[in-house]
Every structure is written in C-alpha cells, then in structure tokens.
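Appendix C: a fully annotated inverse folding record. The material below is reproduced so that readers can follow the format used throughout the book. The structure is listed first as tokens, followed by the designed sequence.
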C-alpha cells in the first residue's frame, strides 16, 4: 500500500472512530493537532550512526474508555534524519576523509495507544503499538556522496562484491512495527508530551536481499519525540 493510500484509509478510520466515540463517550472526546521534534537513531553494529534531529506533525483523537483510561488514535507524518559514517577511500584524485553523511527518512505512523490518567485531563502515561510506513533512507546530496564507502562492519572490504557504498543502503524495509511509552502533561485543551519509540522489527532487513555481499544486516530504530498538542 502506498503512503497516499495509507493516509486516505487512516483518515477515514479516524473519522469513523471519532464519530463513534462521540456517541459513546459524550463526556470526553477530543480531536487534536500536534507537532514536535524527533531524535532518531538506528541501533546497529553494521553501521556507525549518529542520532540526529528531525520533526513531525499530525492528528490525534483522545476519548474516554474505562474509568481512569483513555484511548488514543492518531496519524502522524515524520521527517527523521540520521548521520552515517563514511570514508572517501578509493575515490579518484582524493585524499581519504572520514565524514558523517546525512540521510532523511520520511514516514507515516498510525498509533493505537492506551492512556492511564494519573490526574485526569492534566497528567497521563501513554503506551502501545505503532505502525510505521516509510520511504527510502534518502542520502542527501547523493551526487556528491553516493560512492563514499560506509564505515563499520558493513564496509565489506573482504566481501566478494566489494565495499558497500553510501548509496547502496537507501532501500531499507518500508513497513516496521514499534512499541511506544511516554507521558503527557498540561491542560485539558493544550498539553506537552514526550515519548520513546523502539522498533521491534529489523528496519535494515531489506538490505539483505540487495546483493551487497552481506546477508545479516540488522538494525532497530530508536526515537525520542517531544511535542505539543492542541485539542478542539
């Protein structure tokens, strides 16, 4: 399913769920707009990575469920960034230079979360699963850095297919599942929140089928997110 189709289906589901929630939980059901910044990294021994800031924005709905619990549904759009160490070794007429290269991963997330209200409307703990659908890990300034050799175990100097270059690792797995935990604090109509997401699936798995001379790529996403939400 493309990102466009996924977005359409999710908006439709959010509308249905929100309408139904309003019927069942007239006392409290809110639609919100949220935005924030991300600190994204990939936990892997195959690449040398550096956590980098990005941003996100999206829609969320929060409704009463049972006693001290709320349910949260949402769709969010992410632009995550990450830096990966590479070296210009072997490039024609150049002195080898180590450099962290910038990559961008655009994604859409759907979440279905539980929320335990410690102080109702003011402070709560959130937890639950997240479906992440992303595009490629796009190498910024590709024309300049595509042939840089990646540092770490994936550099592949001894592999039959030769070293792995910066442009070779862009086609990562498109669908990944994450688990999330976090907290929200503030007023009934405006809250600040922070959360941590860990990828339970291998987002580098797709690289194992690319003929790169290495078939055991493994990496799990690690993301801190901080933001604010306005409820209507």
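Designed amino acids, in order:
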């Amino acid at each position: 399913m493309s990102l466009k189709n996924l977005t359409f289906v999710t908006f439709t589901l959010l509308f249905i769920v929100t309408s139904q929630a309003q019927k069942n939980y007239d006392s409290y059901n809110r639609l919100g707009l949220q935005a924030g910044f991300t600190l994204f990294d990939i936990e892997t021994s195959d690449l040398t990575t550096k956590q980098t800031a990005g941003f996100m924005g999206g829609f969320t709905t929060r409704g009463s469920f049972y006693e001290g619990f709320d349910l949260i549904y949402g769709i969010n759009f992410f632009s995550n960034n990450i830096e990966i160490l590479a070296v210009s070794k072997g490039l024609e007429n150049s002195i080898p230079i180590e450099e962290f290269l910038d990559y961008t991963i655009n994604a859409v997330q759907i979440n279905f979360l539980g929320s335990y209200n410690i102080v109702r409307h003011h402070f709560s703990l959130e937890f639950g699963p997240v479906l992440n659908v992303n595009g490629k890990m796009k190498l910024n300034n590709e024309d300049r850095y595509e042939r840089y050799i990646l540092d770490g175990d994936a550099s592949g100097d001894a592999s039959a297919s030769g070293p792995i270059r910066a442009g070779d690792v862009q086609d990562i797995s498109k669908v990944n599942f994450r688990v999330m935990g976090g907290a929200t604090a503030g007023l009934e109509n405006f809250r600040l929140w922070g959360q941590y997401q860990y990828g339970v699936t291998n987002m580098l798995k797709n690289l194992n089928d690319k003929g790169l001379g290495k078939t055991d790529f493994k990496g799990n996403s690690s993301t801190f997110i901080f933001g604010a939400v306005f409820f209507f």
